[in-house]
Write a structure and sequence with these properties.
5-stranded mixed β-sheet, 19% helix, globular, binds ligand MTE, binds molybdenum atom
Amino acid sequence: MVKIQSSEITPEQTYLDRRTFLRAAGAVAGAGVLAACGTQPAAESTSTEESATPSVAVRTDELGDPLTPHEAVTGYNNYYEFTTDKEGVAELAKEFRASPWTVEVGGLVESPRKFGIEDLLRAFDQEERIYRLRCVEGWSMVIPWLGFPLAALIEQAGPTGDARYVRFEALLDPEQMPGQKGRWFDWPYVEGLRLDEAMNDLTLMATGVYGKSLPNQNGAPLRLVVPWKYGFKSIKGIVRVDLVAEPPTSLWMEAAPNEYGFYANVNPTVDHPRWSQASERRIGEAQRRATLMFNGYEQEVGALYAGMNLRANF
Ligand SMILES: Nc1nc2c(c(=O)[nH]1)N[C@H]1C(S)=C(S)[C@@H](COP(=O)(O)O)O[C@H]1N2
Ligand SMILES: [Mo]
């Protein structure tokens, strides 16, 4: 993995190739952000200084769309372990204990291991990635994550020959997470990826957002980010990562199998049974905008699905 130093990045360089740009976009106007995010996420965000400095350009994704304001990213959340009220998550999650935190990596691997969250921060270089997040409900954001590629963690664990999928499990703790006392869902939250999806360079284990460690409402201290899939695949509060042979059954597949499939790739041509997926509301914008195939990451991930029927494999 190439670690990008802020000193190496100029705006011109970021346009050289799209892959580099996806990693570096955050540094165009935010030289301080990457410099400050060594092993620990930066203690102070530079985002407020940036917006107060007229000479500094607005930070955008690689398509030129501005970051969703910090206030919305951390104030409008889906985290059903707490509540289904998006504007109520932050308050309910305020006292959540994201430290100490242990993540177990196991299943079909050569080297199963337990990590403390601080081990993960030390072992893997943290980088910034600006990604679009498209919720299956039809709204979207542009979010500057901090984290490390999931591929690095999987490579270190060493999948055995029969590992085909990755299963992620979130924390089960109804005392801390009042939403888990309800019976609508089969807790804990579980998600899964095919191994090649998990190994794709876009797939991120996020430890921070907007230059700081993750707020509880965004999935502290560790969550997945899979930007070409609907947001529900990006599981928060991860405590287990297992390499497995069979496709894992996610919480959403269990809850509504006709509405939520294993793949959940963003696809404007395949509607949800109850609403269209052709367009979306970008938080902060008045007009709806067209939803892009694979959320705009077709160049990076389209080949993963070559020859597949994306209507059957929704
Ligand atoms: N553990 C867990 N992870 C979760 C969810 C959840 O309810 N529980 N909601 C998902 C959904 S539907 C979305 S859209 C994103 C929202 O992430 P954000 O609040 O950080 O924007 O988190 C996903 N990850
Ligand atoms: Mo979502």
